[in-house]
Structures are given as C-alpha cells and as structure tokens.
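pls read this stuff:
=====
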Amino acid sequence: MQRNTRQRTEIIDLLDDLDEFRSAQQLHEILRQRGSTVGLATVYRAVQTLSERGDVDVLRTADGESVYRRCGTRHHHHHLVCRRCGSTVEIDGPGAEEWASSVGQAHGFSDITHTIELFGICADCRDEDALAGFSED
C-alpha cells in the first residue's frame, strides 16, 4: 500500500470538498487557486493511483477526458450526472445488475462487470434555463 504524501493528502482533501466530477487539470487549477504548489503531473499520478485503489471513481466525458470524484460509498454503484454543471448523484441499480448478469449468461459469459452512467440536466440547471428563457430543444 502506498502512503499518502502531503500532495496526495491535499488532493484527497480537495476531492472531499467537491460534489461533482473534475478533470485532473481542473483539480490542479483549484489547488493553485488555494495556494498549493502541487504540480499537474503529481495530480495526474495521484488521481490514477486513487482510482486504482478504489478511493475515487473515474468517468470518461463525451470528449474522452477522464474526470474524478470521491464518492460517499465504496460499494458498486452508478452515477447520475448533470451535463451542464456536473452535479452528481450516486445511485444503486439492482435492475441493472440483474440485466448485466442475464445478458452475460445468455451469451455464455461469466464474471460480468459493467459501468453504467446516466447523464441529463439537473433540476437547478433546468430551472435556470427556464428563467433565462432557454429550452433543451
């Protein structure tokens, strides 16, 4: 097990303060704004290690960028993510678990794993759009 350095502790503390997924570059920028001297390469290495250890979740955005979030639970779960503001809700998906297992079995697969992320527009962003006169159409 790798020890937590001062830099990694700063990154973990930052992730604990955030509710939305953020890229390594965004995390680095926030750290810089807070007066940290942690380098960008260190942030990339730290989030990769934290992801491998299961201490943070990682998603791929529509443009392929990895974004990270420290979730409140370590058990298997999914996310509902606002496409506009990044607000994230952790969700359980027992139906999805059963579906993934049955699809795997139907095709002769075992030891099935999966990742399911749902994206939409949260109520706050939808309300802001309505106030500004915008629509999703």
In short: The chain has a mean pLDDT of 86.
